[in-house]
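Q: How would the structure tokens look for this protein?
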Amino acid sequence: MRIIHFSDLHYGKHNDRVERMLPVLTKELEAINDEKKIDLIVLSGDLVWTGENEKNFEIVKK
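A: Here is the predicted structure in token form.
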């Protein structure tokens, strides 16, 4: 079983960095998956920087 694990993304603190990283990350995950199928991607920890901004939660859900 092949698992990819991401932890503590903290979206909302450095959105510009995260938004620049996402296309590269997506491309890399596709390449990894092409080599050998990824069975599971796990996101854990803090997905957003603070719970005070509901907009960040909505963006992360997408």
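The first strand starts at residue 3 and ends at 7.

The chain is about 45% helix and 15% strand.

Upvote if useful.
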